[in-house]
Amino acid sequence: MQRTNPAIVAAQVDAIATDFRPAAWKTGMLVDADIIAVVAERLRHHRVVSLVVDPVMIAKSGDALLAAEAVATLEEQLLPLALVLTPNLPEAEAILRHPVEGVAGAREAAAALAAMGPRVVVVKGGHGEADPVTDVVFDRETGDLTELVYARVPGTSTHGTGCTLSAAIAARLARGEDAITAIKGARAYLQQALEWAPGLGAGHGPLGHFGPPGTVPIELITGVPRDRSVE
């Protein structure tokens, strides 16, 4: 894998911060310690408050997406900046360095992760086997623990579930919602996107972000205007 220049990443963060002035931010796959460090430094510089950290560490295939030596940097520099942290079960285990089993384990994990700095932690249950799926939400400031329970949607159209959830949370924070309201709304949207998945391909296919199959104009998906003269 070709290494990204941290200076380029810093310049990108600065350009976004000064040009768009986002009301909320989200991080995803950051790959290594140097990138995490520079992102955290620039977020501190710009005094970012509404930050959603999706600690993209392990792919559905089980492949590592974050260098092992970078986990400490994630813990020390990025997690304290997070308003919301959204690990799945394998990511929670990797950060805490012990197994997370069942809903009871997810509750304990959420509190332990919140002690590392994030205000609110969502431990996602989708990687487990249980049906229904339970996502555990812990608010460090209030001590409140919320469980979001949804039926498991059968099939393999699960590509991008974590990215969708964290992005939807950030979007709702930018609209002015509080963290818990944003998380609940984002999780409900994710459930719809899972149910609306078009069922493309034999592998982990895409979600249905725009509505049920057959309701989305093909131009919105492809970006290519359809020649209506042949209809």
Describe the protein's topology.
Blueprint: H1 6-19, E1 25-27, H2 33-45, E2 51-53, H3 71-78, E3 84-85, H4 89-96, H5 102-114, E4 120-123, E5 133-139, E6 145-150, H6 161-174, H7 179-195, H8 218-222
Parallel strand pairs: 1-2, 2-3, 3-4
Antiparallel strand pairs: 4-5, 5-6
Question: What integer value in Å does the Rg equal?
Answer: 18 Å
Order of helices and strands: HEHEHEHHEEEHHH
Poorly predicted regions: none
The quaternary structure here is single chain
Main beta-sheet strand count, sense and barrel state: 6 strands, mixed
Range of strand content: 5-15%
Distance between the termini: 46 Å
- Structural class based on helices, strands and sheet pairing: alpha/beta
Write out the strand line-up for the largest beta sheet, numbering strands in chain order.
1-2-3-4-5-6
Shape: globular
Work out the helicity level. 25-40%
Number of helices: 8
Instruction: Name the average pLDDT.
Output: 91
Number of strands: 6
Notable characteristics:
11% strand, alpha/beta, 6-stranded mixed β-sheet, 6 strands, 231 residues
Description:
With 231 residues, this protein is α/β, with parallel strands linked by helices. 40% of the residues lie in helices and 11% in strands. It has a six-stranded mixed sheet, sandwiched between helices. α6 crosses α7. The radius of gyration is 18 Å and the shape is globular. It starts with 5 loop residues before the first helix and ends in a 9-residue tail after the last helix.
